[in-house]
Amino acid sequence: MRATVVVPVLKSRSRGGQSESASTRTPESRLEEATGLALAIDLDVVNGQVVPVNDPRPATLLGTGKIEEIKALLNERDSGLVIVDHPLTPVQQRNLEKEWNAKVIDRTGLILEIFGRRASTKEGTLQVDLAHLNYQKGRLVRSWTHLERQRGGGGFMGGPGETQIEADRRMLQDRIIKLERELEQVVRTRQLHRAKRRKVPHPIVALVGYTNAGKSTLFNRITGAGVLAEDMLFATLDPTLRRMKLPHGRTVILSDTVGFISDLPTHLVAAFRATLEEVLEADLILHVRDMSDADNQAQSSDVMRILNDLGIDEAEADKRLIEVWNKIDRLEPEVHDAMVQKSSGASNVVAVSAVSGEGVDTLMDEISRRLSGVMTETTIRLPVDKLALLPWLYDHAIVDAREDNEDGSITLELRLSETEAAELERRIGIGPKPAKEDWER
């Protein structure tokens, strides 16, 4: 379908009375992003324009002159769809469709359309359907009154019956309740999976970032997984978890989550909360940023705002978050070198290229360092009846040296965190207590 993208730039009044932009993002970046969203669902974007709006109209948002101008453009380009990169009220959407004689969708509707196409798992489909129905419920305007039943019940004196719009709302609400129940079951299943993972307590590392920042490409680079990774907004939607081993042998779980975007609808965040809770459960969060995007600072602010809405405040983020400056391979040599040097001097930043692999080893070392905590050096001698602990040791400790003894026991030189050292003591203490000479610290 041939589509036209319209980006309204609303002006707000500052205290001094001077007009200033209501958004921190540049109009050009908003137009580029909105066009990218349209292309993500294979629309043929024939025109895109930024429209300054000094006085938003309650009925149409835009002024009459601009509406006429866009109408002429639609006829000239034979465009049957208009994407307005701004929230529209149901009345505004209906009035614009009448004025332009074309289908009109706002930013929320466009994001929901993309999510609907990307969802592949049962959970993802339920989340999108629920968000879409909540959005659609507010779009029901009084356009069905000609179908109103004039009498209710079987008597002659009955009052007006149920209008078609009321019936539609009731049907939508019934469907919403059904989806919420189904989603509750999915949430319980996900909680059971988390509980099982806690019994084998591998640390969880979550990838977050603005959509198209390169999370899935980095995920594939680190884990060797075949997750879809394309230069496209919201190329992946459903969360993916994989086990991986860090350079020193420790096993962690890496989680790739849905990409964030500015002005993400509130009910959409609520619908995807079960998915985003993977971030809340994470021991370490990798905030992937596209440093080749001129608007990356504003994108970073949007991501941090959503993390804060999820319950991760700035103080907690400082302890649990590593900024991954991605796509440095796209930068000019001078900018590339300056960015790598700047990241090397920061305690929570690593510059990488998920495509070429540059900096990924440094990132893996930093993940190991952040997850290790205070390391304890330990030498243990496992007797034959405790060799079942060997897989656990290789998963949770760094094995620096191993010696297989003639009596079948094994001597290991280990490095492990204080928590895991305490867990090792507990595990060795299960069953018959080993002799003192069998293990030493």
UniProtKB/TrEMBL annotation:
InterPro entries referenced in this protein's UniProt entry, alphabetically: G_HFLX_dom (IPR030394), GTP-bd (IPR006073), GTP-bd_M (IPR032305), GTPase_HflX (IPR016496), GTPase_HflX_N (IPR025121), GTPase_HflX_N_sf (IPR042108), HflX_C (IPR045498), P-loop_NTPase (IPR027417)
GO cellular component: cytoplasm
Binding site for Mg(2+): S216, T236
Protein's cellular compartments: Cytoplasm
Boundaries of every Hflx-type G domain copy: 203-375
Keyword Secreted among record annotations: no
Region called Disordered, residue ranges: 10-31
One GO MF term attached to the UniProt entry: GTP binding
Compositionally skewed regions (Polar residues) per UniProt: 15-26
Cofactor(s) needed for function: Mg(2+)
Coiled coil spans: 162-196
Principal localisation: cytoplasm
Keyword list, A-Z: Coiled coil, Cytoplasm, GTP-binding, Magnesium, Metal-binding, Nucleotide-binding
Family as reported in the entry's similarity comment: Belongs to the TRAFAC class OBG-HflX-like GTPase superfamily. HflX GTPase family.
HAMAP family linked to this entry: GTPase_HflX (MF_00900)
Function: GTPase that associates with the 50S ribosomal subunit and may have a role during protein synthesis or ribosome biogenesis.
NCBIfam families the UniProt entry points to: GTP_HflX (TIGR03156)
Descriptive protein name: GTPase HflX
Annotated organism of origin: Rhizobium hidalgonense
Gene name per UniProt: hflX
